[in-house]
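Possible regression after last week's pipeline update?

I re-ran a chain I had predicted before the update to compare outputs. Posting the input and the new output here so someone can diff against the archived version. Not blocking, just want to make sure nothing changed silently.
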Amino acid sequence: MTNLTRRQMINLSVNATAGIIAIPAIAKDDQLRSNSKSFTVGDIMNIIYKEIPGAPFSQTVDTLKSGNADQQVTGIVTTMFATVDIIRQSIALKSNFIIAHEPTFYNHADELDWAGNNDVAQKKLALLNENKIAVWRLHDYLHSFKPDSVRYGVVKKMGWEKYDPQSNGLINIPSTNLAQLVADFKSKLKIKHLRVIGDQKQSCSKIAVLPGAPGGQRQMSAAESLQPDVIVCGELREWETAEYIRDAEALGKKMSLILLGHAVSEEPGMEWLAGWLPGKAPGVPVKHIPTPDPFQWL
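New output (post-update):
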């Protein structure tokens, strides 16, 4: 508390008698926050809202899945999925705020009864509540940064920033072949296995980067409008875009497909966020924990 002079103490006494307490000038919110390094969950959310035109949105899946906006943040973990293992790692780090890109309870709207009496979802929520962990999904807002932070994260990890016009979604890189492009993705994004359709000797320079799961209509529309050498996706319905690419090749089009996997294709966006947040919330520990691939390759 600010030290008061004798005169200020007298003034306080007089005004208190009159029912009005004169309080010394209060520092601005930004100044207090800078001094105390204290942020609530709501403060962090507002920091991100300020970067997004029209935020907060009236309709969005980006809601708190546990915890509340008023709780003080002891540390932030960014990740793709707030898995049980990542929740436990957050507890060990004494970080009580997880910002996850994808659902926590296995469906788009995070409805706890989406699959009936979901015992796993209920136990997971209990683990979060017992440890006072807030989870916020950051999907719609992350994609609403300019440029799209998820796509930019992939472009940055690949070292393609200078080739990316951020206009129509097409990146023009120095020509390479499909086999080398696959090797680069595996190396730079740390992916063990990739699913690929195409001739490994095909020359590639025009790359359409569509991380995540935008859907077959958007993937095929991009293929038709951009005419890329390669479409790079997170995931797809196998009966849609994969069959389109197979037939396109059979009809003479030189167009290949690389599937990165959903999580690994969007993880760079959450990693970017972990690097961006400390400049906006000084003093709050921020750590990115990658969500590992749940599958084994046999």
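Follow-up from reviewer: compared with the archived run. Residues 1-36 have pLDDT under 50 and may be disordered. Marking as no regression found.
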